[in-house]
Every structure is written in structure tokens, then in C-alpha cells.
Write a structure and sequence with these properties.
single chain, four-stranded antiparallel sheet, 5 helices, 28 strands
């Protein structure tokens, strides 16, 4: 093709498909043929594949709060893209350096980024739901799908049922229908009488990006004869399955006093497989029950396997953590792989686990740092967060997947 000069078309495609989205967005205005190429679903898929298999760097989006003016009580909400670059010599890939870029939220979504931000307002200012293929699902007043790399976003229509609890909203990609899906789970519906109290099973709605609409799905598998299973905290989407941590709760109580003592049967993991459209539950490792000695249990991917990560409630230090890897998805069996203490750091909040041996944390002194499990090395980033416990981070990649039509196959 003459547009690519001395490069063959195939070579030009390989070069372009490895370029950052920002450059590709500029190239779209150079030639009509480039605009057509970059918008082509096959090229979008090629670029996404290269981004997903990039071993030279890792990106995280971090929500943090900073004080710009010491003479004011105002705190600013900042979204920062952190890119860690790796030393690719040898099997052990170590971080060589990092780059932090503050990115702007779309103005039209109406997020107030500068205020005093006291509780409970600070909890609802912006919630990071999850990431898939470069698209980030966030919640402000509405649910949004946002690709910051191409500065494109979409505000979702309101669910038909009552708006879902923010922490239970889930996001991922349905490979069967080649479509992005968002889950909304309303708060518990209860029937209170003078004699007894009854809790109804959860309702669930799923949004489809391709149809721009919601539909209610069957939740029979979230109900037993005496209990209901509630997906409460969305954790991740991995290989076609959505994961929540949640609770198994009694359905019926003779009085409010009985409910206080007996409501929660146990904590567990709730999963949804889009292929079968069925919810299932997976128990935590047996050692975590009676009593529940770990806090903030997270489901994550560790060495390409599903794992649980939590902070020890009664550890010798505040920074004692444990990690369990799932051996068998069907049986729900686990093996403990890790017990560690991040000593002499004073970490207040685990933000993200990445690269299988790195933990991004916010410290008591407001600094943000990465801790290497294997070497016990600490790398402080040139950023901080005034409210570490309200900070958050998610792994992400740079892609040109649009949120208007989503990923498609030609």
C-alpha cells in the first residue's frame, strides 16, 4: 500500500497494532484509509491482543485524594494511570521504573473532583467497579463504561429495578455473545411483620452493551430451602466467569433479636457463568471459618489461577496477609500458598495485587508504594493519597476498544 511507503501492508499493520492508543487516535485524522483501518474490528482485536500480551509494562488506574492547597479544606479527587516498566532480561522480571500520568475524568458525567469530601460523601464520589479490555466500569450517580485511552465513555440507562448496590455491580465480557455485560443487584427486599421477619432472595439484572438495555435473569440458584445467597462485593471477571464475595443468610426470623444472632450463616464466593447463565457458590477455605480471622477477603488472579487474599484480623502486626489458591473449581478446594507480613511499613490499605509477586499499598503516611513478595523490596511512587482507606486501584490495559459498540469480530 502506498500509504505505508517502503513498508509492506503486513509490516505496517504489525507496527500500528503495537502503537499506543493516543498515537492511533491522531493517525485517524491523517488519512481516510487509516481512519478506516483503525476502526476496523479486526484491527481493534489485533491491537487488543498485543496489549494483553505486552510483557514490557503493566498499567494500573489509581483513584486517590490529594490536598492541593494547605490553606484550604478542599481535597481533590485524582485519577492516575501508573505504568510499571519491567527488566525483561532473564526469568525474573523486575521493575526498572514507573511513570505516573494524571488523567481527566469526562466533564459531562458531573463528578465533583474538588470538595471537602467528608464521610459518607467521600465513599460515593467515584467507585471503580472493574476493568475489561481497556474499558473501565465506574459508578458516580450513574453507571458508566469508560475507555480513558481513547477518551470515550457511555452512560448506561437506569436499571429497570431499583438501582443496584454500588459494591455489587459487576462488569465483564461475554465471549458467547461477543458483548460486554454489567450486573446490577438491588438491596435486599424484606417483609417485616409483628410476628416474624422474612428476607426475599436477590434479584439480578444484566445490561448488554450491544442492545443498550437491561433484562432480569433467573436467580433460583441463589436460594435454598432455608437460606439466600447474596453477591455483595464484586471482585473480578476471569475467563467468562464473574466473581463476588458474599454471604449466605437465613430467610426467616421469629424476631429482630433472632436476626441479630443468626442472620449470617457464613461468608462465601458467588460466581456466575454466562455460558449457562447460572449462579453457583464456592466456600472459603475451611480454616477461615470459626472464627473468621481474615478481613477484606479478595478474589484475584495469581499465577493464572483463582486465589483468595486477605488481611489477618489477629496478626502480630497490622500488615499480616494470607493467600490461598483454588485447586479445583468444581470441588472448591484450596491450598494456602502464602503468609506474609509487610514489616516496618505501616500499610493502611491494599490497593491491588499484580504481577503475582507485587502488592500496591497505601501507607499510613499517605504514600503509595509497591511491595515485592519475593524480594521484600519496596518501591515508593511519586504520588500519595490523603485518604488511603478510600483510595482504590485496578489493573488495566491500553486499548482502542470503543464503548459505543464494544469489541466485535468481523
Amino acid at each position: 500500500m502506498t500509504e505505508f511507503g517502503r513498508f509492506s501492508e503486513e509490516m505496517a499493520l504489525q507496527i500500528l497494532s503495537r502503537m499506543p492508543p493516543k498515537s492511533l487516535m491522531r493517525f485517524k485524522s491523517v488519512r481516510k484509509s487509516w481512519y478506516t483501518l483503525i476502526n476496523n474490528p479486526n484491527f481493534v482485536a489485533m491491537h487488543l491482543y498485543n496489549s494483553m500480551h505486552n510483557e514490557h509494562s503493566t498499567c494500573l488506574l489509581c483513584k486517590r485524594f490529594v490536598i492541593r492547597d494547605i490553606n484550604s479544606n478542599d481535597v481533590e479527587l485524582v485519577s492516575s494511570l501508573i505504568t510499571f516498566f519491567n527488566d525483561n532480561d532473564g526469568d525474573d522480571k523486575c521493575i526498572t521504573h514507573s511513570v505516573v500520568e494524571d488523567i481527566d475524568l469526562p466533564l459531562s458525567i458531573g463528578v465533583i473532583t474538588r470538595d471537602e469530601f467528608k464521610e459518607p460523601k467521600i465513599r460515593a464520589v467515584l467507585y471503580l467497579v472493574g476493568h475489561c479490555d481497556g474499558i473501565i466500569c465506574v459508578v458516580h450517580d450513574d453507571i458508566l463504561l469508560w475507555n480513558p485511552a481513547i477518551k470515550q465513555f457511555k452512560i448506561l440507562p437506569q436499571p429497570r429495578l431499583i438501582n443496584g448496590m454500588v459494591n455489587s455491580i459487576g462488569f465483564g465480557y461475554d465471549a458467547k455473545s461477543k458483548d460486554y455485560k454489567v450486573f446490577s443487584i438491588p438491596p435486599r427486599d424484606e417483609n417485616l411483620t409483628s410476628e416474624r421477619e422474612f428476607i426475599y432472595p436477590p434479584q439480578v439484572e444484566v445490561y448488554s452493551l450491544s442492545t443498550d438495555s437491561w433484562r432480569e435473569i433467573n436467580t433460583d440458584h441463589l436460594e435454598t430451602e432455608t437460606t439466600n445467597l447474596y453477591p455483595e462485593y464484586f471482585q473480578m471477571y476471569f475467563r467468562g466467569i464473574w466473581y463476588w464475595t458474599g454471604s449466605e443468610l437465613q430467610k426467616e426470623f421469629m424476631s429482630v433479636y433472632d436476626r441479630e444472632d443468626e442472620e449470617c450463616v457464613r461468608q462465601l464466593i458467588v460466581v456466575f457463568d454466562m455460558n449457562d447463565e447460572v449462579f453457583e457458590d464456592i466456600l472459603f477455605p475451611y480454616s477461615l471459618y470459626n472464627p473468621m480471622i481474615y478481613l477484606d477477603m479478595r478474589v484475584l488472579v495469581w499465577n493464572d489461577s483463582v486465589a483468595l487474599f486477605g488481611q489477618h484480623r489477629f496478626g502480630s502486626a497490622e500488615d499480616a496477609f494470607g493467600l490461598w489458591v483454588m485447586d479445583d473449581f468444581v470441588k472448591g478446594s484450596w491450598t494456602k500458598h502464602l503468609a506474609l507480613e509487610v514489616r516496618s511499613v505501616g500499610s493502611r490499605m491494599v490497593l491491588e495485587i499484580w504481577k503475582s509477586d507485587e502488592i500496591l499499598l497505601a501507607a499510613n503516611d499517605n504514600r503509595i508504594f509497591s511491595y515485592n513478595i519475593r524480594t521484600k523490596g519496596i518501591k515508593y511512587l511519586p504520588i500519595e493519597s490523603t485518604y488511603p482507606t478510600f483510595s482504590a486501584a485496578i489493573l488495566c490495559i491500553n486499548s482502542i476498544v470503543p464503548v459505543i459498540h464494544g469489541r466485535q469480530q468481523a
